[in-house]
Specification:
The chain is mainly β. The strands form 3 sheets. It has a 3-stranded antiparallel beta sheet with strand order 1-2-3, with no helix packed on it. Strands 4-5-6 form a 3-stranded antiparallel beta sheet, with no helix packed on it. Strands 7-8 form a two-stranded antiparallel sheet. The two termini are 23 Å apart.
């Protein structure tokens, strides 16, 4: 799967490009929701009500209208080389984990 089509297979995708923060779901744009800068914490998470939220530095930018299907799987797609993600974490049911699963 090449980088140009990789994002189309992601159910819930945060798209960060040239300082713009956008959301794609199943290959379809849901819109642009503000900006981000290098070093911002970007999250795609399931909230307490079971909805998918897209956040930048803890601020919810968009809540999906699509219901997630489980199991969910993380995926990162890149268009360029170089540093992409730092301190990537995949956390299941946080109440049942002593510490988050980390991928450094």
């Amino acid at each position: 799967e090449n980088a140009e089509n990789c994002w189309k297979s992601i159910d819930f995708a945060a798209h960060n490009y040239n300082g713009e923060f956008a959301v794609y779901e199943n290959g379809r744009s849901r819109g642009k929701f503000g900006t981000y800068t290098a070093g911002c914490r970007v999250e795609v998470r399931v909230n307490a009500q079971g909805g998918v939220e897209y956040c930048v530095d803890g601020q919810v930018r968009y809540t999906s209208k699509q219901t997630p299907e489980y199991p969910l799987h993380p995926k990162i797609c890149a268009y360029s080389t170089g540093p992409l993600a730092k301190d990537f974490q995949w956390v299941g049911d946080a109440s049942k984990l002593p510490t988050p699963a980390r991928f450094d």
